[in-house]
C-alpha cells in the first residue's frame, strides 16, 4: 500500500490536523470529530450540516464555510460517522433557526443521522433530514436500499448553503434541497480500484484492460465490467443513462416535529427533457487528472447539445472522490432561476470559492 | 495503458476542445494551439503569456483569465510548444504595453521562447522573458541546465497576472516576476510513475515499496530512490531541503530591446530565514488525493512554525501535475506586501478563482 500516511490508525486525525492548520477559518474538533465554521452559530440562519465516511474529499469538510456547509462530520474512511458526532456538530453550529442534515443515501448514514435528528430535537432545535439519492447506476446495492447518494450532494450543499446564508427558513431550505435532489442524476465509472488504509489492499480488483461501469464511491460494484473503451464511448454510456432515466419514485422519510416521529411520503423525479438547463459536474474519482476530465466534458457537452439540454454552469475536477481511484462521474442537475441564483452566490470554503 | 482517451494522436486536441466547451470565456485556437482570454488584447495592459509541455494541467491553460495569464501555449505532452504557437498567441494577446513570456527552465522551452521573443520583437512589440528555476532537488538534469522550473510558476503567474491587470508596465511586471522567482523554492517526490499517451508505457518504474525523492514533473530522476517512508519523514526531507537551501546564483538572460540581442547578468536567491512569511503550495502530482496532501501540510506547517517561518497564504491541491503520477511537491515563496496584495487580488480562471 503506497500512501502518504504515518500509522494507519492516525490517518484521519492527522489529515484533520492538516485541515485545521491550513484553514484557521474553520474549527476542527477532534473528539468527537467535526469541522465547523468559526463564529458559529449564526443567529437567525439555518445550520446546514452534512457528513459521511471519509475518503471522498473535498466532500464534506472542504465545503464548510460561508455560503455552503455550517459543519461537517467525517467518519472513518468509507464508514458512517456516529450520531454523537452529528449531535455535537449540531450543538456547535445550530442557532434557533434550526438544523438541516444533508445525508447521502447509505444505510449507516441514514440511520445515524436519524438518531442524531432525534437527539437534536430533544435539545429543542428544529431539525430535518434530507437524503440525496441520485445515482442512476443501481437500485439497491451493497451499501444501501434505493439509489446511492453521489455527485448531486456537491451541487445541493452549494445551493442550499447559499439559501441558508440568504436567510431561508428551515422549511424553505428543506424544500429547496429536496428539489435539487429531485432534479439531479449521476453515474460513475472506475479505471482502477482504491485502497482503504485500514484494509491495506485494493477494495476490488480490475484486470489490466477492465473498467467498472456504474461504480459506487466506495468501489462497490456497478452495472457491469467491460474492456476499456474509448472515452467518447464511455461518456456516451454514462450520459445517456442519466438523460434516459425515467421517472424515479422514492419514499421520503421526514421528521414530524409536532409528533416527534418519522413519517413517510412518496416523491417522484421527473426525467430530463429537451429545453432543460443544467449544472454539470464532471468529477474525478481522485486519481484521474483534470486533462482527462476535459475529454469527458467534450463528449458530454456534445450529447447534451444534441438532446436540447443546455449547460448553464459547470464544475470540472475532484469534488466527490474515492481516495486515489482513477475514473470519473457525471452529474447533471436541472436548474431554474432559484437554483442558479444560489449557485452564483458567493462561497468561501477550502474547495469551492468565488465572489469572496 | 488505462486512460480516458480516444486515439493517442488526438489526446491534446480533444482535451482542448473540452476546455473550449467548458470555458466560453476563453478562446481556444487549435492551429497553432493556444488559449487566450476572450476580448484580448486589453489596451494598456501587459500580456502575460506562458506555456510548456501538456500533462501538467491545470498549468498553464487553466490559469488563463482575469487577473492571471492572458494566454497559454500547450505543447504536446511533456514537450515544449513551438515558437510559432508563442508568436501567434502573443499577436492575439498583446497590446502596445507589450508581452512577458513566463518560461519554466527546460532547455526546449527556453530556446523556443527566446526565438518567439525575437519574432514578437520583430513585430514591434515590447517583450521580455522570465525564467522560473526553483526546484532545489537537482542542478542540471535530463531536461535542463540549472534548476528546473516547477511550483513557483503557479504563484508567479497569479501575482504577476494581477500586477498586469492593475496596470504595471512591462519593466515593473518583469521586476516583480524575477523577485517572485528569486523568492521561491520547491521540491517534489513520486510514489508512482506516469504514462505519456504516445509512449504507452510508464516513464519510469518504481518498485512496490519505492519512492523517488526530488522527482521532476516529467518523471525525470530526482536525488535518489528509497523505500517508502512515513509521510512525516518524507515531508521533513523536502521541507528541510527547501528551507536549508543556501544562496543560489543563476545567470539571467535578458532581451536587450535597444540592441536586439540577449544579454546576461547574475542574480542570486537569498535563503529563507526566521521571520519570513511565505505563500505555501502543497501540490498533488495528479493522482494523489487531497486528503493525503493535508497530511503533508500538517507536518510542513509544524516545521515552518518551528523555524520561524509564517505561512501567510496557501494552496492545497493539484496545480502543477504530471498526468496521473502519485506524489506531491512543496513550494514555498517568500512574500511581502507587494506580493500579498497581488496574490489577494481577484482572479477568474478555470483553476483559480476568488473575488469574482
What is the topology?
The structure is a homodimer of 356-residue chains.
Chain A: H1 11-22, E1 26-30, E2 33-37, E3 47-54, E4 71-77, H2 83-93, E5 99-104, H3 107-122, E6 127-132, H4 152-165, H5 170-183, E7 184-190, E8 210-213, E9 224-227, H6 231-244, E10 248-256, E11 261-269, E12 277-284, H7 290-306, E13 310-317, E14 327-334, H8 337-344, E15 347-348, E16 353-354
Parallel strand pairs in A: 3-4, 3-5, 5-6, 12-13
Antiparallel strand pairs in A: 1-2, 2-4, 7-8, 7-14, 8-9, 10-11, 12-14, 15-16
Describe the protein's architecture and organization.
The structure is a homodimer of 356-residue chains. Chain A has 356 residues and is of the alpha/beta class. The first copy, chain A, has 2 domains: 11-184 and 248-270 and 339-354, Rossmann fold (3-Layer(aba) Sandwich), CATH 3.40.50.10440; 187-243 and 273-334, Dihydroxyacetone kinase, domain 2 (Hypothetical Protein Tm841, Chain: A,domain 3), CATH 3.30.1180.20. Chain A is 30% helix and 28% strand. Chain A has helices at 11-22, 83-93, 107-122, 152-165, 170-183, 231-244, 290-306, 337-344, and strands spanning 26-30, 33-37, 47-54, 71-77, 99-104, 127-132, 184-190, 210-213, 224-227, 248-256, 261-269, 277-284, 310-317, 327-334, 347-348, 353-354. In chain A, helix 4 (152-165) runs antiparallel to helix 5 (170-183). Chain A is globular and about 55 Å long. The mean pLDDT of chain A is 97. At the A-B interface, helix 1, helix 6, helix 7 and strand 16 of A face helix 1, helix 6, helix 7 and strand 16 of B.
Amino acid at each position: 500500500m503506497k500512501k502518504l500516511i504515518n500509522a494507519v490508525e492516525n490517518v484521519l486525525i492527522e489529515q484533520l490536523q492538516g485541515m485545521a492548520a491550513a484553514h484557521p477559518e474553520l474549527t476542527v474538533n477532534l473528539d468527537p470529530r467535526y469541522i465547523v465554521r468559526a463564529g458559529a452559530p449564526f443567529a437567525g440562519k439555518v445550520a446546514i450540516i452534512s457528513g459521511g465516511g471519509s475518503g471522498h474529499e473535498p466532500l464534506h469538510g472542504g465545503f464548510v464555510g460561508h455560503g455552503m456547509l455550517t459543519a461537517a462530520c467525517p467518519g472513518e474512511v468509507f464508514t458512517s460517522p456516529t450520531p454523537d458526532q452529528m449531535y455535537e456538530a449540531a450543538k456547535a453550529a445550530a442557532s434557533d433557526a434550526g438544523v438541516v442534515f444533508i445525508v447521502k443515501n447509505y444505510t449507516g448514514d441514514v440511520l445515524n443521522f436519524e438518531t442524531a435528528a432525534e437527539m437534536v430535537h430533544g435539545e429543542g432545535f428544529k431539525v430535518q433530514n434530507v437524503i440525496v439519492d441520485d445515482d442512476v447506476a443501481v437500485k439497491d446495492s451493497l451499501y444501501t436500499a434505493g439509489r446511492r447518494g453521489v455527485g448531486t450532494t456537491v451541487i445541493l450543499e452549494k445551493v442550499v448553503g447559499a439559501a441558508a446564508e440568504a436567510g431561508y427558513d428551515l422549511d424553505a431550505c428543506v424544500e429547496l434541497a429536496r428539489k435539487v435532489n429531485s432534479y439531479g442524476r449521476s453515474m460513475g465509472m472506475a479505471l482502477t480500484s482504491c485502497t482503504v488504509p485500514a484494509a491495506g489492499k485494493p477494495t476490488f480488483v480490475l484486470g489490466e484492460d477492465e473498467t467498472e461501469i456504474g461504480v459506487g464511491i466506495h468501489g462497490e460494484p456497478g452495472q457491469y465490467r467491460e474492456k476499456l473503451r474509448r472515452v467518447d464511448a464511455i461518456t456516451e454510456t454514462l450520459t445517456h443513462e442519466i438523460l434516459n432515466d425515467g421517472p424515479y419514485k422514492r419514499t421520503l422519510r421526514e421528521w414530524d416535529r409536532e409528533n416527534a416521529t418519522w413519517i413517510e411520503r412518496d416523491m417522484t423525479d421527473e426525467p430530463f427533457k429537451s429545453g432543460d438547463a443544467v449544472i454539470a459536474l464532471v468529477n474525478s474519482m481522485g486519481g484521474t487528472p483534470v486533462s482527462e476530465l476535459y475529454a469527458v466534458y467534450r463528449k458530454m457537452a456534445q450529447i447534451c447539445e444534441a438532446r436540447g439540454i443546455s449547460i448553464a454552469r459547470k464544475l470540472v475536477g475532484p469534488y466527490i472522490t474515492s481516495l486515489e481511484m482513477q475514473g470519473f462521474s457525471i452529474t447533471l442537475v436541472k436548474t431554474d432561476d432559484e437554483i442558479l441564483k444560489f449557485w452564483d452566490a458567493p462561497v468561501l470554503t477550502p474547495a469551492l470559492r468565488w465572489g469572496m
